[in-house]
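Structure tokens please, single chain.
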Amino acid sequence: MARRRLSGRDVNGILLLDKPAGMSSNAVLQRVKHLFSARKAGHTGSLDPIATGLLPICLGEATKVSAYLLDADKGYQFTCRLGQKTTTGDVEGEVLEIRPVPELVEADIERILAGFVGEIDQVPPMYSALKKGGQPLYKLARQGIEIERKARRITIYSLRLQAIRAAELDLEVLCSKGTYIRSLTEDIGEKLGCGAHVAVLRRTRTGGFRLTDAVTLARLEQIRDESPAEALDSLLLTMDSALETWPAVSLNREVGLFFRQGRAVRVPKAPTGRLVKVYDHQNRFLGVGFVLEDGRVAPKRLINHSE
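Here you go.
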């Protein structure tokens, strides 16, 4: 059977989007894909519908580096609403429990927050996309089913108090992949003895990308209304921008051809045992390679370039 050809443009690059509240990450992705008239697109780690902030979207060949952004560290600003536990761990859930909020002393809060910094074990929430027997946990949770979840090791690099109000804390966190801010908020609430849930969540960082460089969906729609889809292309970052901190290796013309054919190639002084970004003699990004112990660079993800 002939493979159905996808409709749309061959557009390649990374868009830094400031996701609006009230939309799922997939809904935003599909809207961006439509605005760009792109043939292929993918996001790099979903945000809950209530969340806003940085959502890098990979278009075309850039989807081949999206997995590395999924693994990147993340930064968030969030508000803990104290005194209430909810079914989902955020403001969208039903209130399960109400407890009095103690007097909030800054020094005590800072001490509690410091206890979360470093490597810690965190139990993922039931309302998550993790799967049990092929079924997402959030679907089981909606059926009133709760199953035991294993704690996972995460890293909190920093956790800072930004503001204190009567029953809310504004916090800023830098954390490793796999960190659930709803679980962190609930754990902070338990340490304070009153319970808590997420009232506001905004992602500010993904790897080397920052929210300050992102564009809103409303702005994209305005540009698209006034111009053809190609006008949006100037907003795209290069595919290798997702790998900014990685070591790079450059190949001459002949060796570059071999690498593009899927062959491991020898590169003098390449850092063994790790992933690298690979360029040809014209400084064109060829993809991701892994440096073997013998010094050869084996292709992991190759970028297709139209000649």
